[in-house]
Design goal:
Elements (H helix, E strand, L loop, with lengths): L1 H17 L4 H8 L3 H5 L20 H8 L11 E6 H4 L3 H8 L6 E7 L4 E6 L16 E5 L3 E5 L8 E3 L3 E7 L2 E7 L4 E3 L16 E12 L1
Antiparallel strand pairs: 1-10, 2-3, 2-10, 3-4, 4-5, 6-7, 7-8, 8-9, 9-10
């Protein structure tokens, strides 16, 4: 019986040690514990620096989005390369404003229903014969809470720029996000690239304001 009693005491001692309830064990357990807790703390209060105010995103939306951006762009200022209120509703104008930029781009828009959504592209928006980009690319929407749709690995149809349309994400002939040449009409459908929901309230929408921010 004594052997059994000794045997049953062992787990309780191990549990005490693991839960750091014993003073001697507590000293060894507490040293590494703060590391994962304190790691994200410096990023919480720090938002990105915008060269000018956004007409689409508020401070809260900007801060939320910044938490989902790749680490390589953290701390980089946001430069407004294109906006419809300044540069007009033209996809060709967007391509022109993108010339000379190679860094990643955050495309944000508000439609006529007041819905805010967009995409992060790992490289500048440009004319292309085929799809380009990397797995850093993602779609997002505020409905009203932020939802981020990241790459699933299913295909590599990230971004494709034609003269008359811009497409992001694709499967079965439909696009996660597409904009027409006048940057007025657009659409959003679920696609395998990002496994996204419809970003707007409806699959077809009209753009009220669009901005392209270069993050470099």
């Amino acid at each position: 019986m004594k052997g059994r009693w000794r045997y049953t005491r062992l787990p309780s001692q191990v549990e005490d040690a693991l839960s750091a309830e014993e003073g001697e064990e507590e000293e060894g357990e507490t040293a590494p514990a703060p590391a994962p807790v304190s790691a994200p703390a410096p990023e919480d209060p720090v938002g990105p620096q915008l060269a000018e105010a956004s007409q689409v995103l508020g401070a809260s939306e900007i801060k939320q989005l910044s938490l989902h951006l790749p680490p390589r762009v953290t701390g980089h200022p946001w430069s407004l390369a294109f906006c419809t209120s300044r540069d007009g509703f033209s996809l060709r104008s967007l391509y022109r404003q993108m010339e000379g930029h190679s860094g990643p781009v955050l495309l944000v828009l508000r439609d006529q229903d007041g819905q805010m959504f967009g995409a992060f592209s790992s490289s500048a928006i440009r004319l292309s014969k085929g799809f380009y980009g990397t797995g850093e690319t993602f779609l997002f929407s505020f409905s009203p809470q932020l939802k981020v749709f990241k790459w699933t690995g299913s295909n590599s149809f990230f971004v494709k720029g034609d003269l008359d349309s811009l497409m992001m994400g694709s499967s079965s002939g439909q696009f996660g996000l597409w904009l027409d040449g006048d940057l007025y009409h657009g659409g959003s459908h679920p696609c395998a690239t990002f496994n996204n929901e419809v970003l707007a309230r409806q699959e077809q929408f009209c753009i009220k304001e669009l901005e392209a921010w270069v993050l470099s």
